[in-house]
Structure formats: C-alpha cells, structure tokens
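Handoff note, outgoing to incoming analyst
You'll be picking up this chain. Sequence as last confirmed:
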Amino acid sequence: LEKEHRGSEKVFNARGKAVLPGFVDAHVHTSNTIKRGMGQDVPEIEWMLKTASPFTQHTKPEHIIRGTALGVLEEILSGTTCIGEIGGDLTSVAEKVFAPSGVRAHMANTINEIGAGSRPDAREPYIFFEDIGERKLRNAIDFLDKWHGAEGGRITCMFSPHAADMMSKELLLRVKKEANSRGMMSHIHVAQGGREAIQIDLRFGTTTVQYLDDIGFLDDTIIAAHCHQTTDEEVAILADRGVRYASCPTSIAIIDGITPPLALYIKLGGKSAAIGSDQANGNNSHNMLVEMKVAALLNKSRHRDPTVLPSWKMLRIATIEGAETIGLGDRIGSLEPGKKADLILLDLKVPHMTPVLSRPVRNITPNIVYSARGDEVETVIIDGRVIMENREVFTMDERRVIMEAQQAAEDVCNAATEDYMKADSQ
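Most recent structure output, in case you need it:
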C-alpha cells in the first residue's frame, strides 16, 4: 500500500469513538426537503393530493436542486454514506449535487403515466397518459446510460416504476423486462396506503400485492418500498417471492399512522430488508440514527414484543443488510478487505452516549441505536475520500446550502399559498 499510494496516509485518532460502515438510506426523495413540516398531521388520503401537490406544481428545477442539496447535507452530517435516491428527473441533481458532494448514490428516475390532469379525485380512477409513460421510460434509460457507474462507480442506477396505481400493466412489465435485460433491479412503491388501495381496487378489483403477484411481477429483482397497506398473508407472499423490502417507518407512521411490517417480513423469511427516510414532508428528517430507533420502537410496539428487532439487527439493516437489499452488498455496508472505504466515526464521549461498557453487557450498539442523535458523527469517509472531519463538510458549503434552501422554500410556499388553501386539507 505504501508503494502504491505513497503520501496518501492519514491517521485518525479514534480513541473513544465508534468506527462503523456508513449508513445506507435505501429509499429517499431529497428534493422534498424544502417542504419539511408542510405535510404532517393530515389524513393519508389528503397527503399527496392536498398537501404535496399544491407545492409540486410551483417547484422549479432550481428549487429541486436546493432541496436536494439540503437533504444530502443532512444525510452526510448524520452518517449516511449511500443514498437510494428516487425522483422525477434526476439529471440536474446528479450533476449539481450528488456528483460534487462526494456521497454515494443509487439512483432512478420514476416512470409513470401520470400527468397534470390525471388525479382530479382520489376516489375515481386516475387518468393515464401513454405518451407521458413513454417519455419517462426514455428519460430513465437515458439517465442510467449516462450515470450508471459514473464518478468512479460511486453513482449507480436502477429502474423505478413508480407504483402499480400510476401506470398500466403493459408499461409496468416493460420496465421490469428492460431492467432485467440490463441485470438491474426495479425499485417500486408498493401498497403505500388507502389512496393506492382505492385505485387498485377500482382498476383491477383486487389489492396491490395480489395484482403484482398475479401478473408475475414479484421476484428477487424487485425492491418494494413501504408495503404497509398489506395483510400478513400478503407480506408472506412478498417474502416467499424473494422480494427485497425497503421500509420507511417514520414517514409511514406520520403519513399513514401505520407501522410498516419490517419485523413481520423478516420473521416470515424475507430475503433482504433495508430502511429509508423517504421525504421530509412526510418523515421530517433524513437521519438514519433516528430511523433505526423509530423502526425498532414501532415494531416492538406493533408485535408487543421487546425482543423484536434488537439493536444489533437494526444496525445491520442500516449498513450491510441495507447494502445487500439495494444490490451493493459486495461493495459497501461492512468494513472488510476488498470493499469501498465508506466509513464513519462517532464520538462516544458525550453525555448521552456515556458510559461505554463491555461487561457484563456490551452497550455500544444499543446506545448507538437508541441514544445517538446524529451530531455524534465526527468524520465521514466515502470511497476513501474524507468528506467530513470534525463536523466540517468539505464538499458542500453548509451555510450557503441552508440559506439557499430557505429562500427556495419561501419562493415555493409564496407561489403555492393560494392553491394550498383551495385544496382545503385538514
């Protein structure tokens, strides 16, 4: 190493610190970070159409870039090194945020047939536009042709058929076929609440999981996000078909008032599970340390069993198992020879992480999962490059990102106020 990389040595004093693989946030929409706190505490059926849509139509490309930068900055500061980003058109944010920030990203443009006039009423079938679907599929392919393997492999891609209620069966199966032909996975929102359940029943007379299973969509090339509008039997179907699961417990608890079936999926033999922070107008934050704790607590409460999802399991789900779920387990997620140098250092010498003990119980992992807040993360190294040290992010101007995000949020909210009030959400 000294011969091949002469002069590159840097020594970190990690005494009193935890050295961990960086966290994997498997399902994220960072562009919505400028809408933080703007979609909470409303009925689920109102969330997308009455609290999100009024802002979306006034969100310009420059607002998306600033929101994404804010979300990525928050992720880095709390120890996330790999972001599973899903969005409408990610070209500009790949160029202006993900590439220069140094973060690892696994990205996909969403594909659907939804246009401006598609959803006049949540209780009536959505109107699909075939030409929109064709354009979005083409854009998704163009994006991954350019970005898959970019930045020395730090940016990788997947396909993302948006959801079963937002596209025809024909397009859904075409997307999966295209992904499989390239050896890629498809990341899809599945059974994500009452609104989707209404649409699938209106169009197909069944439930989302049953529909996807009937058309042969479910297998181990599928990453299914959310899956909370399901029966136990349907979770068993997902597990049996080898479907990978990205659970977003905080977001779904806030938007739907439901605990996603993470522990149940694992209990039923699910192949691979990850957790994601989703979006800040749902979750309110992009912080995997918070996400681990919430996932554990909600699932313990759901099953009335304090042994469900112990802290060591949550730490694995946020690192190596999360990496395996999105198809990057051979590159990241653990600290071992041959893998990418994605690692973080957490300061344990702070009041809420003290004491550090190893007998009769090793308390470091429980304290990380149940006590850490994110500000303990001192150093972040991604692909061997020091991105943050002593809480200073080298690849992003923190003050500027915050200032520009604040301005973007004000611009969007000022433009959307009348439409928001007309939507008359609770």
